[in-house]
Write a structure and sequence with these properties.
Strand content: under 5%
Structural class: mainly alpha
Distance between the termini: 72 Å
Radius of gyration: 31 Å
Shape: globular
Helix content: 55-70%
Number of strands: 7
Length: 766
Amino acid sequence: MADLTFMDVAQVDLGKLGTAVSDWKKIVDNLQVLAKNAKSGLMTKANSARWAGENATVTRAFVRKTAKQFEDAYAEAKSIWTLLDDAHVELSKLQKNMKVAIDIDAPRLGVKIEDIGGGAVRWVFPHVRGDSDERTQEQLDAAQALADRITGLVAHAMEIDASMNRALGRTNKNSPHDFSSNNYASLDEAETARALELAKLGPKMSDKHFTELNSIMKYNAKDPDFANAFYKGLGGPRQALEFFGRMSIDSARGEKEERLGLTKELQRNMGVALATATEPHGNPGYLKDWGIQFRKLGTEKIPLEKYGRDSPPLGYQLLGGIMRYGDYDPKFLNPIAEHVIQLQQKDPVLFAASKSEYGLNLYNPSGKDGAGFDPVPSILEALGHSPEASKKFFTEPPEAYNEDGTLKGGVADLGKDKDGHPITGYLDYFTSESYTEFPGDINGHFNTEEIEKAKQYMPDALGHALESATLGHAYDDPTPELIRDGESVAIMESVVDKYGGDADLLDRHGSLSDSLGRMGAGYVDDINWALNDNDQTSMFAPRSDSGGHAEFGREGARNFLNALGKYPDSYAEISNAEKVYTTSVLDAQVGENGSINHAHVREAVRTGGEVQGMIDESRAEQVKAEGLAKDEAYNKALEKRASWIEFGTGVGVAAGAAFLPPVAAAGVAATLIPVATDAGTGALEQQLGHVIGDWSESKQQDSGDDVLKQRLAIYDAGESTSEAPMREFMRVYGIQRDSQFGGDLEEALNSGYDKGSNRASHMAKP
C-alpha cells in the first residue's frame, strides 16, 4: 500500500467511494431477494417434489447447493458493502477534520504545511517582508502540535485503508471459485480479528507488527464493539494481564528504545480500551464480571516467563499498568481502588516482594510516577482520568474488602492518624504522616536517590485524582469542561483546609503543587468570595444555586493562597487566574446603558490586589529562605505560562469559563477559570488578551544576585500584574487616572495589595 499524503486525505474524491457503496447496496438488495426466493421457492419445491431413485439424490443435492450459493453470494456482498460503507463514513469524518486543520488552523497559526513522505508532514513559517522571522518556543510548539495532528489524521486514514485491504483480501482467501465464509459484520470486526491475530504473537511480534497493532487499537479503543471483542478475544482477565505483562517486560530489558516506545503506546491503548469495555452505559456487551475477576487476581502471582523469577508480579501490579489510562466507570474502578489501598495498608511490603533490579519500569512502561511495582500511584492515575469515579472515591464512606477482593462490608480499616483516631476517608489516609513509610516504587530496593525521588510519586498522582474530582474533567483532558457540584465542592473544601492549614503537609507533597494551582484557578471565584468572608451580600456571592460553590472562609482562603504562593507552578496559575477572573468581574459591572457600578468595581480591584499581594509576599519569603535559585524557578514558571497565553488568540471563553491557553493554539491541556459572565465573550476575550499582554510585559526581570533586590522586584512586578485588569477597564470605558473614580480605583488597588502582602507577612512569622 502506497503512503498517503495529507493532501490525499484532504482532496481525495470520496464521491466515487460513495457511489461504490450505493452500487454494492443495490447488489446486496438484489441478492437478498434471490437468496430468499431460492430458499422459499427453489428449495421448498425441491424438498416437496416426489422424486425417487438416483434423480432424487442428485437433483435435491444440486438444488440445495445452488440455493446455498445464493445465500453465500448475499452474505459476501453484504460484508463487502458493510466494509465499504464503514470506510466511507470514517474517511469522510477524517477529510472534514483535515480540511479544518489545513484551511483554518494552519493560516491562523501563520504556518505552511508540507509533505515529507511516509505520511508525515513538516511546518514552516513563510517569510513575510519586514518580519524578523523570530519565533517563541510556544509558537514552535504550537506549529508542531498542528503537524502532529495532521500526521495523526493521515495515519488514521492509512489504517482504515490497510484494514479494508486486509478484510477484502480475506474475502476469497479460501477459494477463488467459491463465495467466501470470511465475512465481516463491520469494519470493527475485521480490525478486531487482525488485532487479536497480532496479539497472539506476543513478544514475538516484529516492530512492524507491533506498530500495526497499536495503530488498530489507537483508532478503535473507544469503540465498545471493538474493545469488548478484543478483551474477550484475549481469553479473559488473566490472559489480558499476561499479554500486557509479557509485552512490558520484553521492552523493559536491554537497549530497546523503539520497542519501549511501542509498549508505551500499547499501555495507553489497552487502558483506554479496558475503560471502554467495562463501561456499562451505552454498551450492552460490556465486561460485566471482569471487575470481580480482576480483584480476585489482584493478589495472585501471574507467571510471565517459563523460567522466570521466583517472585512474579501480582495481578494488581499488571492491572495498574493498564489502568493508568482511560475514563473508568465508578462501579468497576472504585472497588479495585479500595481493595488495592486496603491491601497496602494491611501489608505495606506486599507489593515490594516482586521488585527487580533487572529491567526498567517492568510493569509501568510509561515510567510516570513509579516503576509499576506499587499499584497505588497507578490507581490514583486511573482516578485522575475518571472524574465521576474520583468524586465518589473521595466522598463516599470506604467499604471493607476481603483479601480475595470480595466485598466484606462494614467500615474499612485505614489505620489511625497521628492522634490515634481511626482514619475514615481516603483523603485523610493519603495525607496522614504515616503514609511516607511505604516502600518507594523504584526498580530494586537500595538506590537512596531514587527512593527519595519516589516519595513524590504518590502525591503527584494524588494531585491528578483530586483535580479530576474537584474540576470534573480528567487532569490532562485536552478539551476540558469545568463541572462543579456539591460533591466536588466538598472535596475542594477539604483540600483547601488540609493543604492550607498544614505547611508541613505541602512540604511533603510538593509534587502536587501544580495540581493545587489548577484547582485553585478552577475555584478562584470562590476564593474571592471567601476573602469577603463568604458574606451573602458580597458581590462575589453566588447569584443562583450555590450547590457548585465552595465556602472556604476568609482564614481558609488566606491559608491556601499563602501555601500556593510558595511553589512556582501554583503561584503562576493563581496569578493568571485572578487576573482573568477580575477582568471578567469588572466587565460585568457595566450595564446595558453603559452605567457602571462604582462600588463593585472598587471592590473587585481591591480583592484582586489582595490576592496578588498575598502570593507575592509568600513568594518573596521563599526567595528569602531558599535564595536566588528558587526565584529562578518562579520566573521560569511565569515565563512558560505567559508564553502559552500570549501566543495565538490568547484566551478562549465558553460555558462560563476561560481557557488558558486555548488548546488549539498551544497544544496543551488548558487551565479552566470561572468568569463572571457568558455575555459578550468576544469583547471579553479581547480584554483578557490585553490584560495577559500587560501581565507578560510586567513580569519580573533579572535584578542581579542580590536577594533584597529580587524581593523588591517581586513586589514591583506583582503590583504591575494586579493593576492590569484595572488599567484595561479604565481604557475600555474611558476612565481617566486623574478623575475622582480613577483615583478611587488606584487607592483600592494599593489598599488591597498592601493588605494581602501584610497579612501574608504576618502569617509567615513564627
